[in-house]
Amino acid sequence: MGAQPESVGGHAAENLRFIRAAMERSSTFTAIPGAGGVVMGMIALVAATVGAAEPPGDRWLVTWLAAATVAAVVGLAAMARKARAAGMTLTGATARRFALGMAAPFVAGAAITYALWTAGNFTVMAPAWLLLYGAGVLTGGMFSVPVVRVIGVCFMAAGIAAILTPAAWGNGWLAAGFGGLHVGFGIYIARHHGG
Asked: Does the predicted TM-score (pTM) go above 0.85?
């Protein structure tokens, strides 16, 4: 007995799965939330204001870590909302590649922050955070619209500037980076990339 011929419907379904997978691999992650970025930037500006009243130390660090946590929740919620409105999923291949691109520098940033905290060295946290956040956004941005890569480069430039200027300016660089860059680019993304 010969093999049963494959049905046309089964063959078409397999072709559609292949096409869908190919399109997902070649697509860009566009759920970067502009409005969410603006809110994240405003959270950072509040943290910078509070942090400016504190000498570098545990309270300053807690201020910035709390702000980062709140901003991350806001950013993820805004990203999920934008993806849902566009009919996208945050679990697709492109979104996973975007997240994985960002993950390694973010994990490195958390580890370096812990190491600096245990050593009592708060002066290089601002440049490290800016550089590693920028590296994460730049790397993740390889799977997104070009402006995301520009954001990453700008954060890295702010980190380098923070290294080249007095350590006392660190809180100001954090305000400029996490506050100013998020607000400015957030407005741009909201206007030019669908919210």
From this structure: no
